Amino acid sequence: MPELTDADGQANSLRETWVLVMTRDDRLRQEAVDALRKMGIDAVAASDPMHARAVIGDGRPNVLVTAWDIAPEEVAAFRHDVLGGEERCPLVEITRELPSFHLSGFDRFETPKVGREQLTAELPPTVLFELVKIV
Q1: 25/41 Cα distance (integer angstroms)
Q2: HSE (side-chain half, CA atoms, 13 Å) at 80
């Protein structure tokens, strides 16, 4: 299990953290979850916001990963209604094409983006970077 070191030099384990991957594409969903788990990041998958509500129950992921096949309005509503707002759960987007900018504004926050073709190599470190900010 990877550990993160905070500013005071204290090690924090990722043991209590987890990521929700939400995309309608079965293959993409599995590939994302597998890539995260290989990095030691616990990941749960859902096909859409309704399925995600059932999967997470009363829990709340530390990072939400979504893909282009979930409408931005659905993602925003899910984050607001289920996750308590965008500031409570960072978002990473998987784009169909390589993004021209890896960060873009989404609800006042910068959203990291990972291109579909770079998913296995870029998603785990991108999510890890988001976890570093909150752990």
Answers
A1: 21
A2: 8
Confidence at 9, pLDDT banded by 50, 70, 90: low
pLDDT band at 133, cuts 50/70/90? confident
Task: List the domain range (segments joined by +) for residue 53.
Answer: 3-134
Q: Which residues contact 58 (CB under 8 A, 6 or more apart)?
A: none
**CA distances (Å), origin 61, targets 95, 98, 112:** 21, 26, 17
DSSP β-bridge partners for residue 2 = none
- Separation of alpha carbons 38 and 58, rounded Å: 26
* pTM across the whole model: 0.83
**Which residue type sits at 4?**
L
Write down the pLDDT at residue 13: 58
CATH code of 47's domain = 3.40.50.2300
